[in-house]
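Ligand-bound model needed. S-adenosyl-L-homocysteine.
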Amino acid sequence: MHNGKITLVGAGPGDRGLLTLRGLEALQGAEVVVYDRLVSDDILALIPAGAEKINVGKASSHHLVRQPDINRILVEKAKEGKNVVRLKGGDPFVFGRGGEELELPAEEGIPFEVVPGITSAVAAFAYAGIPVTHRDYCSSFHVITGHAREGGELSIDFDALVRLHGTLIFLMGVASLGKLMQGLLDAGMEPSMPAAVVENGTRTNQRKVIATVSTLESAASAADIHSPAIIAVGKVCALSDRFDWFDSRPLHGKRILVTRSDSSPAKLAPALQKLGADVLDLPVIRTEPLGEPLPPESLDVNWITFSSKFGVRCFFDALCRSGLDTRALHGIHIAAVGSVTAEELRRYGIIADLIPETFDGEHLAQALIDRTDPYDRILVCEAKIAKGGLMKKLGEAMRIPVRLPLYDTIPLPLRDPETVRRILLEERPLITFTSASMAESFAASLPDMDFTGFHALCIGEKTAAAALSLGFETAVPPEATIDSMAQYISAHPAY
Ligand code: SAH
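Prediction:
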């Protein structure tokens, strides 16, 4: 049997943007991913759906899977011919036991590679506004394990550390924080030496406590700091307020549930995350092309109108399936509900003749009526489940609408409804909907949930009407675009 391969990948400290390109490449090609507790959910979400996931996570007191067993799992899976990724928080060789995990593969001649990661020892502080070195304050930084042996004893030469005058960084030190600080003080460190602890560094729930070597323990316990957290001692810690950029982002720490279609990549969630929001990305619907050729009467029209980007794509697929191309649209006017739909049309070489000023179905209907004559035939491309508002309006104005259902919208149940329910009740987050079907599908996953008083930002009036009837308090941004939704939220952070 041919050997597989083991790739030891550093996942970075948590923020998915801090995974390296090589790391992402390795993950995308993985057949088995062995990961532990320090790897953030955002990174775990990048594991391909078909890959086997093995959680060997360790809680600091009890090891879920013992180290020799982890080593054996890696080798066994590689021997099955699998492409194995061993995913570790931060950098695999910085207190990550990466070296130990390579011993067996090296012995057994199993090919392996190492993808370094961004270590929390530097990154957590960068996100807390603390440069680990600064020419004015220190000329070295030192990374030390604060992990105590059984019985609580530390084997650290505090005298040597104090003499270095560098920035001292302690990993795995929350449990022994008091002893670490006392050790430094006993070795003669100034009690006023600045010190910091950063919990969940680089993640949306990052917290930091800035104090001095003599007050850090009480400050950290007052703030109820827990692992994973990392400690720094040194003058650079005093820069934290001045260089604070992470905590001062407009939506810092704001909880938002973003619903979306599983059929298109997340757009609003990353935009809000960049502004600092703590986003839960929730696919709640799936759109599927009906996959049929165009009925012959479809092109015997004066206008074609599109209500979504996905509709544009499905239309051109159907055109192709009918053995036709863009030339078949010669002489037909084209309308798009908004800028995103118009943008998609451009990709097919078509400049929309009409986009309503306000991007919604109502305004599209009115704009079409203004531009057409009675008895004009208008092909209405839409979802199978469309409620028929546009068709009705056009018909009432004596136009001849021809309906073309192109895709189906299928509700997707929430993957983890209990967690969503808990977050709703405990954190009362803002929720966003970009279609009525998303609001309906979201609510269907949470039967018995009372949405009264929950705020929902909805892309347009139709979506808002659906959310309102489910009990939400709704708001609609000035334009029916993702950008406008993101701007609305950042302009109303308290909303
Ligand atoms: N290989 C990892 C470190 C593993 S040791 C790295 O390079 O980052 C585990 C310790 O790392 C934790 O006890 C904590 O001190 C630190 N740590 C890891 N990720 C962290 C994070 N996101 N925020 C704060 N500390 C973190």
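The pocket of S-adenosyl-L-homocysteine is lined by residues 13-14, 38, 88-91, 94-96, 119-121, 124, 171-172, 198, 200-203, 227-230 (CB under 6 Å).
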